[in-house]
Design a protein that fits this description.
The complex is a heterodimer. Chain A is an alpha+beta fold. Chain A is built from four helices and seven strands; from the N terminus they run αβαββββββαα. Chain A has helices at about 1-30, 40-45, 130-135, 145-154; strands at about 35, 55-60, 65, 70-75, 80-85, 100-105, 110-120. In chain B, α9 (about 245-270) runs antiparallel to α10 (about 270-295). Chain B is an alpha+beta fold. Chain B is built from 20 helices and eleven strands. Chain B is globular and about 80 Å long. Chain B has four domains: about 1-160, no CATH class; about 160-335 and about 350-385, Four Helix Bundle (Hemerythrin (Met), subunit A) (Up-down Bundle); about 390-515 and about 620-640, no CATH class; about 520-620, no CATH class. Classes of the chains: A alpha+beta, B alpha+beta. The interface of A and B includes residues 18, 29, 123 and 132 of A. β1 of chain A pairs antiparallel with β1 (about 385) of chain B.
C-alpha cells in the first residue's frame, strides 16, 4: 500500500511539473513569438500594432538618414519597401544595400518602430530569413554575387 | 608531409576505434579476460593517434601551411600567434578533431584510473566510448577532413572571423567540449550498465566524479562564453537565449539533474533507472548541441559551415546514438532491481523534485529552441523565439527550484523532519525577505520580479550558510569544537555549499544587470563630457593606430567620479581588411558594484558633430563571473573528494550532502 501511495505521489508531482511547464510554454507561444515578415508580406497582411515582429530584407541604398540618435531607413525585398525608425547606435555591420533584420512593431501609420537592429556582413552571406524572403520575391541573384552586391550597385 | 601524417593518424584511429568497440564487447560477453584487456591498450593507442593528428593540425596552423584548405580558410600569416593556435579549433573541422581528442582522453582516463572497476564493466565502457569515436571519425573523414590539401596553394589565407580573434576562443570551446565529451563517458557507463543489467551504489560512485568533471567544465565553459559575449559583441549582453547558447545550456540542466540523482543512487540505491535515462539524455543533448550548431540549421556566429551532406550524416548519427540508446534503455531498464524505499518527506523526495523541475525547465528550453525549426518545416512560417518566451516559461520554473535548493540539503535521507528543518531555516528566510524589502525600499518599488529574485539569491546564500553552520553545530557547542568540525568537513560538503551559494551570487548579478542596466548614447567632440550613474566621462581625443592584422581608431575617455579622476578608458573601433569587417572593442572598468562599459560607435565626426560614444552601467555584472567561478571551484572540490564517501560512522543521523 505504501509503495503504491508513493508511486502516486511521484506521478502527481511529475504531472504537476511537466503539466505546468507545458501550460507555460503554450501560453508563451501564444504571445511571445516574433514572426518573420518580408516587406511584401507586411504590407499584404499587416500585423496588429501590439504584435512584436521581425522584418527582414535589404537596407535600401540611399535611404539612410541620421538625425542625432534617430536613424531612418527603408527595408526592401525589391518588391515593396517599409520605412523603419530606430533610435540608437546601429550595429557595426549595418550597411546600405546589405541584409538586415529589425525587431519591433508596425505603427498604424505604416512606420516600423524598431527596438533592435541585427546586421550581418559578408559578401555571400546574409540572414537566412532574408535570403529566403528574397528568393520568394524572385530577387535572389546568386550568380551575380548575391543580392548584397547587386543592391550596392543600385 | 605533416598534414598527411595527421590524416593517416585519423584513419588509423578509426580502425583502432572499430577494434576497440568489437573485441572488448565480444570479450565481455564471453568472459574472456584477454579480449577485455585489449580495450585498455586500444584506449591508449587511440588517444596517442588522435594527439598526433591534433598536433599535426596545430603545426599546420603555426607555420601557416597554406597548402591545407582548412588553414587557408581560417588563418592568415599576419594573425597573432595565439589566434593561429586557437584558430585551429575555431572552425568546424578543427573543432571536431578537438572533440574526438577529448573523447579519447576520457577513454584513456578510464583505462588509467579505472583499475578498481570490474573488468567487464571497464571493457564495455571503453567499447561504447570507442563506438562514439567510430561515428565521429567516420563523419570527419567522410565530410569534414581538416587535412585536405589545396592545389595550387594561395599566397595567403582568408583569416579568422575577427569576432573570434579573442583569448576567449582559446578556452571557451575546449571547456565546453570537455563538458559535452565528459557526458559521453557517463553515457558509456550508462549503456554498459544497461548491457550488464546492474546498477548499484558502486557504479554510481564511479560515475559521479566523471559527471562532476563534465559539469564543472560545462559550468566554466558556459560562463566564459557569456563573459566573452559580454565584452566582445559591444552591447554588454551576456545571454541572449540564442539557440546556440540554449544548446549548451540544456546539457548543463540535464547534467545538473544527473549529478543529484547519481548521489541518490550512490547513497540510497534509489532512482536507478531514472539516472540511466538522465545520463542518456545529457549526452543526447550534448550531441544535439555539437551537431545542430555545425549542421547549419541555425545561423549564428557559431555556425561555421552549411553543407547538406553533413546535415544528413549528422541526422543519421543522432538517430543511431539517441534512438539506439533509448531502445536499449526501454528493453533493459525494467529489469533493474528497484531501489531503496524512502518516505514522502526525505532527501530522496527533495532530489526527485529537483530532478523533475530541472527536467521540466530543460524541456521548456528545448521547446523554445526547436519550435522554430519544426514550424518552418511544417508550415514554412519563419518565427523567432526570444527572451520574452524564456522569461515566461523557464524563469517561473526556477522559482520553486531555488526555494527547494535551500531546504533540500538539510533534509535527512529516508525520512526527514520538515518542521525541524524549517525552524532552523527561519532566520535565513526572514533575512532574505528583509533584504528583498530593503532593495525594494531603496529603489522606491518598481520591478517586483527583480526584487523577488534578489531575495531568492540571498536565500540561496543564507540557507547554504545555515546548512554549513548546522553541520558545524555553530553556537551549540564550544567554538573550538565547531572549528574542529570545520576541518573535518568532507570536501563534498564544501563542494555543495559553494555550488549552491555561488549560484545565489550569480543570480543576484544576472537579475541586477538585466533589470537595472543603464545606457547613454551621445556624440562627443574632444573635450565634451557625458554622465552615467554618477560617473562623468570626458572624451580626450581619438587616435588612429595599426594592429598586426587590423587598423583601429582608439578613443581616450577620462573617467571622474565626484570630481576625482579615477580612470581612463580606451574603447576601439577596429577594421580587419582581410575579412572586410569592422568590430568594436569595448573598454570596461570593473567594480564590485557594477561595470562601466564604453564603446566607440561608428560615424563621421564632421557630419554628426562628434564621435558617437555609447556607455553602459551594468550593476553587479561581476557577480555573475564570481558566482559561476565559485560554482566551478565547488565542482572541483567535489571531484577531489575521497571515494567512496561511506565512511564516517561518527554521525549516523547527520544528513549527508547531496553531492
Amino acid at each position: 500500500m505504501r509503495a503504491k501511495r508513493k508511486r502516486l505521489y511521484i506521478l502527481l508531482s511529475a504531472l504537476l511539473c511537466f503539466g505546468g511547464a507545458t501550460a507555460l510554454v503554450l501560453a508563451a507561444f501564444d504571445d511571445s513569438l516574433a514572426f518573420f515578415y518580408a516587406p511584401k508580406d507586411l504590407l499584404a497582411a499587416p500585423p496588429g500594432p501590439q504584435q512584436a515582429i521581425r522584418l527582414g530584407g535589404l537596407v535600401e541604398a540611399g535611404t539612410l538618414e541620421r538625425a542625432g540618435r534617430e536613424v531612418r531607413f527603408q527595408v526592401t525585398d525589391r518588391v515593396e519597401s517599409v520605412p523603419v525608425l530606430y533610435s540608437g547606435v546601429l550595429p557595426d555591420l549595418f550597411r546600405e544595400g546589405q541584409g538586415v533584420v529589425v525587431e519591433g512593431k508596425l505603427s498604424p501609420n505604416g512606420l516600423f518602430q524598431a527596438h533592435r537592429v541585427l546586421a550581418k556582413h559578408d559578401e555571400n552571406y546574409m540572414p537566412r530569413e532574408v535570403a529566403e524572403a528574397l528568393k520568394a520575391s524572385g530577387e535572389w541573384q546568386p550568380a551575380a554575387g548575391g543580392p548584397a552586391q547587386a543592391g550596392a550597385a543600385q | 608531409m605533416i598534414p598527411e601524417l595527421g590524416h593517416y593518424a585519423l584513419v588509423l584511429a578509426l580502425l583502432v576505434a572499430v577494434a576497440q568497440t568489437a573485441i572488448p564487447l565480444y570479450g565481455a560477453a564471453q568472459g574472456a579476460g584477454r579480449l577485455m584487456a585489449f580495450a585498455y591498450q586500444a584506449a591508449y593507442i587511440q588517444f596517442l593517434l588522435l594527439a598526433i593528428a591534433f598536433a599535426a593540425l596545430i603545426q599546420s596552423y603555426l607555420v601557416s601551411d597554406f597548402t591545407v584548405l582548412n588553414v587557408v580558410q581560417n588563418s592568415h600569416s599576419l594573425k597573432p600567434l595565439l589566434y593561429k593556435l586557437s584558430g585551429a579549433w575555431g572552425n568546424h573541422e578543427g573543432s571536431l578533431l578537438l572533440w574526438v581528442l577529448m573523447l579519447a582522453l576520457f577513454g584513456a582516463g578510464v583505462a588509467l584510473f579505472g583499475g578498481n572497476l570490474p573488468a567487464s564493466l571497464r571493457a564495455r565502457v571503453l567499447a561504447i566510448q570507442a563506438l562514439i569515436a567510430v561515428g565521429f571519425l567516420a563523419f570527419m573523414l567522410a565530410t569534414s577532413n581538416p587535412f585536405i590539401r589545396v592545389v595550387p596553394p594561395p599566397l595567403d589565407g582568408n583569416d579568422l572571423n575577427p569576432l573570434l580573434q579573442d583569448p576567449g576562443l582559446a578556452f571557451h570551446p575546449p571547456l565546453l567540449y570537455l563538458g559535452y565529451v565528459g557526458f559521453s563517458l557517463v553515457f558509456s557507463f550508462a549503456v554498459a550498465a544497461l548491457i550488464e543489467g546492474r546498477v548499484d551504489p558502486a557504479w554510481a560512485g564511479w560515475v559521479r566524479p566523471w559527471t562532476l568533471i563534465a559539469w564543472t567544465a560545462l559550468t566554466a565553459g558556459i560562463a566564459l562564453g557569456a563573459r566573452w559575449a559580454y565584452y566582445e559583441l559591444g552591447w554588454g549582453g551576456w545571454w541572449f537565449w540564442d539557440p546556440v547558447e540554449n544548446l549548451s545550456f540544456m546539457p548543463w540542466l540535464a547534467g545538473t539533474a544527473l549529478l543529484h540523482s547519481v548521489s541518490a543512487v550512490e547513497k540510497r540505491g534509489a532512482f536507478k533507472a531514472w539516472t540511466l535515462l538522465l545520463a542518456i539524455l545529457a549526452f543526447s543533448l550534448s550531441l544535439l548541441g555539437t551537431f545542430i550548431v555545425r549542421s547549419g540549421l541555425l545561423t549564428s556566429v557559431h555556425a561555421f559551415a552549411v553543407d547538406p551532406e553533413r546535415g544528413v550524416f549528422i541526422l543519421a548519427l543522432l538517430c543511431i546514438a539517441i534512438g539506439g540508446s533509448l531502445a536499449l534503455y526501454a528493453w533493459r531498464a525494467p529489469r533493474l532491481t528497484p531501489g531503496g524505499n524512502f518516505g514522502t518527506l526525505s532527501r530522496e523526495s527533495g532530489l526527485l523534485l529537483n530532478n523533475l523541475l530541472l527536467s521540466a525547465a530543460c524541456a521548456t528550453v528545448l521547446a523554445g529552441t526547436l519550435y522554430p525549426l519544426f514550424l518552418e518545416l511544417a508550415s514554412g512560417t519563419l518565427v523567432s523565439v526570444g527572451p520574452p518566451f524564456y522569461a515566461k516559461t523557464f524563469v517561473p520554473l526556477t522559482i520553486p527550484l531555488l526555494i527547494l535548493m535551500g531546504i533540500g540539503p538539510m533534509l535527512a535521507w529516508k525520512k526527514a523532519d520538515l518542521s525541524r528543518v524549517l525552524s532552523r531555516l527561519a532566520l535565513a528566510a526572514g533575512l532574505s525577505v528583509a533584504i528583498g524589502l530593503l532593495v525594494a525600499w531603496l529603489l522606491g518599488g518598481g520591478a517586483i520580479m527583480a526584487v523577488f529574485f534578489l531575495g531568492l539569491a540571498a536565500w540561496l546564500v543564507l540557507s547554504s550558510l545555515t546548512d554549513l553552520a548546522e553541520r558545524l553545530r555553530l553556537f551549540r557547542v564550544p567554538l573550538g569544537d565547531s572549528l574542529a568540525r570545520l576541518s573535518g568537513l568532507p570536501r563534498r560538503q564544501w563542494g555543495m555549499t559553494l555550488a549552491h551559494a555561488g549560484l545565489g551570487i550569480a543570480i543576484a548579478g544576472m537579475t541586477a544587470s538585466s533589470v537595472w542596466k543603464d545606457e547613454r548614447i551621445e556624440t562627443l567632440m574632444p573635450g565634451e563630457s557625458m554622465e552615467i550613474a554618477g560617473y562623468v566621462l570626458t572624451l580626450e581625443g581619438v587616435r588612429r593606430m595599426t594592429g598586426p592584422n587590423y587598423r583601429a581608431e582608439q578613443a581616450a575617455l577620462a573617467v571622474t567620479y565626484d570630481g576625482r579622476a579615477i580612470d581612463r578608458l580606451y574603447p576601439e573601433r577596429r577594421f580587419y581588411p582581410v575579412q572586410q569587417m569592422p568590430t568594436s572593442e569595448a573598454a570596461i572598468r570593473i567594480t564590485v558594484g557594477g561595470d562601466l562599459y564604453a564603446v566607440l560607435g561608428e560615424g563621421d565626426p564632421a557630419e554628426q558633430g562628434g564621435f558617437p560614444v555609447r556607455v553602459y552601467f551594468e550593476p553587479l555584472v561581476a557577480w555573475i563571473w564570481a558566482g559561476t567561478l565559485i560554482m566551478s571551484v565547488g565542482g572541483l572540490l567535489s571531484i577531489a573528494a575521497r571515494q567512496p564517501a561511506r565512511r564516517t560512522a561518527g554521525r549516523p543521523t547527520a544528513p549527508q550532502p547531496a553531492e
